[in-house]
Amino acid sequence: MLNKLKNELQHFGSQSYNFRVLTLTNLIYSIVLPVIDIFVAAYVMRNSNDPSKVVVYQLTIYTGIPLTFLLNGWLLNRFPVKLLYSLGMMLSGVSMTIMMSLKTLDITGVGVAGIVMGMSFGFYWANRDFLALSTTNDNNRNYYYGLETFFYTIIAVVIPVIIGWFIELSARAGDAKMAYKMVTGIVFIITIIASAMCFRGRFENPVNKKFVFFTFDPYWYKLLFLAALKGLVQGFLVTAPAMLIMLLLGQEGALGTVQSIGAIFAAILMYVIGRLTLPSHRIYVFGLGLLLFAVAAVINGILFNATGVILFMLFLLLAKPLLDLAYFPIQFSVIDLLSKKEKRSEFAYILNHETGLYIGRLAGAGTFLLMAYFFSNEIALRYAIIIVASLQLCSYWVAKSIIRQGKEITQSLNPQPEYHE
């Protein structure tokens, strides 16, 4: 066992310096991600008891993300990428502070906090994706995302339980809001540490300065369609677990406990998959993730009780990392090919990719709002997620087509020399 661990540490040490710095930066910041993803939505539910406000919060986040991607492209011509990456991490604490300072959770206040959180995500993901693309290659991307997912999932064992029960016990003592404020302060401290780690990297800005294009190779539009299908579920995935648990289980402590069940198994599984799989295996990993998410949605819809929520979260613990582990390398392989073919900056594709995600997110969140408005919140939580999960199953065939065409483009860009006797 010790020899195996030593071999894995040596393998990590054999990666490039920037690879290691980026991984450690993301590891530190991942400590606050469960807080941002789950407990902010739970805070809105606790203080408003209105799932529609949670969705409005999410919609404003998703509106802030593409706008910040565009702003980030302009700022990359003037500021170091690691500064903008650090800014994204810091803004998450600012957004939480705005939310905690609201005396009443009206739509305007929730929307402002959501826009700032969207800016945080925009700066974070725009620069994180570019740095991941520039510091990895097609051969080690499965390992990179397997390693990241391993750390994220392990952290998801500890953080939700600690914070969830801390908030719930504080609520029993009559001061839940103070507990949320203390958590916000801890988030600020962790983002500062993550930023300090990021500044140790020797990261370079994109070489080509033009990032905005309106026409692309037809191959790119397949990936945009895949991005829209991914965004369709993202419109639910961040807030739906919190809403379901608060409605059907009731408290943040239960929320944290459910988030942690099975996470250690999922973490080890993701690391093994990332370490051992080849680029040719991505479509199978992706398909398994899609299937597990569809099963989770159906179970939740049929049962729609405490047991259903627990099973939904358990399946989600496996489905989400499997999807991410396969999706990002597929996305980056397309960008690698087209940036060479069209001679454009990689960031131009990262920026445009956000358009596809945004369209999907609006469609997913809009589906929930329409069903909640015309029927009820229960109907929306029960059946809308089945609708989007069923639609997302189409992603398998889209991804399969992208991989197949990618091989053809690679062969055309790197033709084999003819053999002569």
Task: Walk me through what this model shows.
This is MFS transporter. GO terms for molecular function: transmembrane transporter activity. It holds the Pfam family MFS_1. Keywords: Membrane, Transmembrane, Transmembrane helix. The chain has 421 residues and is an all-alpha fold. It has a single domain, classed as Growth Hormone, Chain: A (Up-down Bundle), CATH 1.20.1250.20. The protein contains 17 helices and no strands. 51% of the residues are buried.
Write the layout of secondary structure elements.
Blueprint: H1 2-13, H2 17-29, H3 33-48, H4 51-75, H5 81-101, H6 107-135, H7 141-172, H8 176-198, H9 218-237, H10 240-248, H11 252-260, H12 263-276, H13 282-303, H14 306-342, H15 346-374, H16 377-392, H17 395-413
Helix pairs in contact: 2-7, 2-8, 3-4, 3-10, 4-6, 4-15, 5-6, 5-8, 6-15, 7-8, 7-11, 7-12, 7-14, 9-15, 9-16, 9-17, 10-14, 12-14, 13-14, 13-16, 13-17, 14-17, 15-16
Structural class estimated from helices and strands: mainly alpha
Order of helices and strands: HHHHHHHHHHHHHHHHH
Largest sheet: none
Shape: globular
What do the pLDDT scores average to?
83
CATH class: Mainly Alpha
Extended strand count: 0
Measured on Cα atoms, how large is the radius of gyration? Answer: 21 Å
pLDDT < 50 runs, ≥5 residues:
none
CATH topology: Growth Hormone, Chain: A
Share in helix: over 70%
How many domains would you count in the coordinates?
Answer: 1
Count the DSSP helices: 17
Strand content: under 5%
CATH evolutionary superfamily: MFS general substrate transporter like domains
Named CATH architecture: Up-down Bundle
